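*** Query protein ***
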Amino acid sequence: MKNLLVKSSPHLRDEDTVSKIMWSVALALAPAVVMSIYFFGSGALTVYVTCIVAALAAEMLCLKVRGKPLHHATDGSAFLTGLLVAMILPPASPYYVGLVASAFAIAVVKHCFGGLGHNIWNPALAGRVFVQFAYPADVSLSEWMAPRMLFGTGADAATRATPLVEEVDGYLELFLGNGVAGSLGETCKIALLIGGLYLIARGIIDWRVPLYFIGSVFALTAVLPGASGFEADPVYNILAGGLFLGAFFMATDMVTSPVTRRGRIIFAIGCGVLVALIRSYGGYPEGVAYSILLMNTVAPLLDRYCSPRVYGSKTKKPS
């Protein structure tokens, strides 16, 4: 008993640190980043650099103002936010769009709520929605930059409609991103799937979230009345737009999603239902960003009512 060491919790610690997790997610996004640069050329690299530099600059400025150590800017969270902001922007976005989106994500959505671990909404998605309203002409979903082809020949055009506006022939094209217009990092689904499976294998994200998210969109699209053509095609709907990027890399955010297993399942299903409803009946062709942000708002409530029973008690009561 003399060797008994009394310490405060936590008594068990995971080997993964915040920094390791953030850089692991950035690594998982690398295949999609490489493919986006292939599809959209040097302009894509400009968008990435602008967003990442803006996010890091905003992070250091906010840390300085808040009196926090500046070395926190190297934990990878700001870098990852800037990277994700770039991936959900149009490939030919003007530099100021990425700059404003990244600065808003870091300064307003993250630091105004207390910094890393305290934000309510996913910073990258909130930044994307902000510039959607601030610069609607630059972030329109109608005509975007036509990508380079992986194989075959495409129409000789500088711009192309996204697959949620104009139908793309073939599931393989959608899966590979061959000639498919869209946000910078959302077009190549196989690259996103590889990154997502890596994070699942590492235990960084819960496999239930992407499974129930994508599955809900598939199931609901197949039964919703009033839809026709590609809008009623469940396979087309899970391969089009930013669903894979949102399901694997946005909805799984540890800070803004529920902590309990049951809460995550409800959260993911809620995201899927909202995406299907917005796409089918809303005035906006894509609903991934809005669905995740809305469910981020509900996440604390899900944590409260989906908490497991305390060991030794007969009932579970929300605190």
